[in-house]
Amino acid sequence: MSKNYNMSTYSFTQKDAPLFENFLHYSRKGMAAFHTPGHRGGRGCEDLFRSLGGEFLRLDLTELKGANLDQDPDFLIKKAEELAAEAFGAKQSYFLVNGASIGIMAALLALKGLGKEILIARNCHLSVINGLILSGLKPVFISPTWVEGLPCLPSLAVVTNALKDYPDAAGVFLTNPGYHGIYGPLGEIAKLCKAKKVPLLLDEAHGGYLKYINNRIEEASTVDADLWVWGTHKMMGSLTQTGMLHLGSGFQNREKLEDALELLSSTSPSYLLLASLDSARRQLYLNGRAMFTRAAELSEIVRQEIINLPGLKLIENCYLPTGYGVDPTKIILSLAPVGWSGIKVEEILRQKYLIQPEYADRDYVYIFVSYAQERKEVCSLIQALTNFATTAGPDCDRGRIHPPPWNRQPLQLSPSEAVNKPVTYLNLQEVTGKIAAGWVAAYPPGIPLWVPGEQISSAMVEWLISFQRQGGYIRGLKKNQVKVIQ
Ligand SMILES: Cc1ncc(COP(=O)(O)O)c(C=O)c1O
After folding, report:
1. Which atom of ligand 1 has the smallest separation from the CA of 175?
2. Nearest Cα to 449, choosing from 418, 407, 419, 410?
3. Are 9 and 3 in contact (CB under 8 A)?
4. Cα(181) to centroid of ligand 1, in Å?
5. Which atom from ligand 1 is nearest to the alpha carbon of 178?
6. Which of 44, 176, 127, 203 is nearest to 444 (CA)?
7. Which residue, 103, 101, 266, is CA-closest to 93?
8. Which domains are present in the chain?
9. Is 181 close to ligand 1, i.e. is its CB under 6 Å away?
10. What HEC string does 103-149 produce?
């Protein structure tokens, strides 16, 4: 049902979704439209597209005074963001319509000027490198904790040492949980950063909901990080490309951050996407615990059914160091004990059983269970894995862990310096020893194998070639050539 808010009598609560509901109300008024977008509520879209879009297309509106309670174009966005901040324990929240990526890039731009170096856990997403290119900050990479070949949150000791070496760092930027679905102990790191007065920034694109499942799991909001970014579209129920950026109580550079968001954002944000964030916030506030408890329970059913299958290995909490854990909604499994690569298992699940996992690499298949999952889908997954594990027999690619051979040496140049040098493109076989002028990443998870300004090693080239040979997808190459400094 759409609602017509009357600003003089109405103050918004968490039961409202002011942006979503007001735009829905407006779209149903039947106004004669003489403004962008030109498709006129979907009437002008191509036939098939229109027939699929239905009423949804009427919500594809822009900054219209009439649809904004006669207020400024961003009035309702601000109101919706205020409700999000209150709902998610932030001092301030911003809606993002270009993915978590734009929030990460804006965060790094906002730190520009606070210091030259920034401490970054090496298992960062490529948007972090793009943020470094834009901001000119120089990364000092710190080692993640490795668990069964998977990079996770760095240990407190690693962050402590890095801060000893770089006490004036512009910030500490960590990814937690990782794309793979493992979270780590954030609390002590957050305390350390506060004590050292160095901002803690978190890429929480794959988290934000863990506290609904178990409130002892530490997340950015519960440890009062300075800034954190959500990929709300990933598992929290908003539409693809939406995210949120949240500020904790200690963040100092709010104006710079807002300038950076302005710089990177479209001047015509999609209200359809914004409305989906507003309604996702309401749903999470009112039902988050039930939603994610359900997802965790369904995931646990799968785990219990497959844990004893022959040749199948599940990453469980018992393999992890204290304080680390597997996101209860995610299943990280491997058939490497019988020689199957994750990429091959994923292909068979997809082609033979019509089951699409989130992704796979050489070692693991990653299955993300949602609160919106149907039970019959869960049963099909159990059935497929059981059939597969009991009939597949060993494969030739004997299982072993293939962690990417990241460089341990400091960068030769900062990413922004490197991309501004004259460049050339070379074949993979020719780039060992060269300085990269762009990043290259296995996608997913989008963690760069090398970054601009880094010397490319022969181990990296071998890893990449063998990953491609096994069917993995690499981003950052042009016609399989590599951009390097001349
Ligand atoms: C850890 C991590 N951070 C950031 C991002 C970027 O998110 P988005 O695709 O919403 O821009 C991703 C995307 O997969 C990611 O895995």
Report:
1. 1
2. 407
3. no
4. 13
5. 1
6. 127
7. 103
8. 18-68 (no CATH), 75-284 (3.40.640.10), 292-391 (3.90.1150.10), 415-485 (3.90.105.10)
9. no
10. HHHHHHHHHCCCCCEEEEECCCCHHHHHHHHHHCCEEEEECCEEECC
**What separation in Å is there between the alpha carbon of 39 and the centre of ligand 1?**
31
Residue 38: how many CA atoms within 13 Å on its side-chain side? Answer: 1
Rounded distance from Cα 104 to ligand 1 centre (Å) = 9
Give this prediction's pTM. 0.95
pLDDT per residue as tens digits for the range 284-341: 999 999 999 999 999 999 999 999 998 899 999 999 999 999 999 999 999 888 888 8
Residue 224 pLDDT greater than 70, yes or no: yes
Helix 99-111 × helix 126-135 angle, to 10°: 40
Q: For residue 365, give every residue at least 6 positions away whose Cβ sits within 8 Å of its Cβ, in sequence order, or none.
A: 332, 333, 334, 342, 345, 346, 349, 357, 359
pLDDT tens digit string along 101-130? Answer: 999 999 999 998 888 899 999 999 999 999
- Residue 355: predicted pLDDT: 96
Burial class for 338, CB neighbours closer than 10 Å (0-12, 13-18, 19+): middle
Other residues' Cβ atoms within 10 Å of the Cβ of residue 34 = 6
Amino acid at 430: E
Alpha helix (H) residue ranges in 226-331: 232-235, 254-264, 271-306
Distance from the alpha carbon of residue 238 to the mean position of ligand 1, in angstroms: 14
Question: Is-cis flag, bond preceding 445, omega within 30?
Answer: yes
Q: Extract the tokens encoding 53.
A: 């879009």
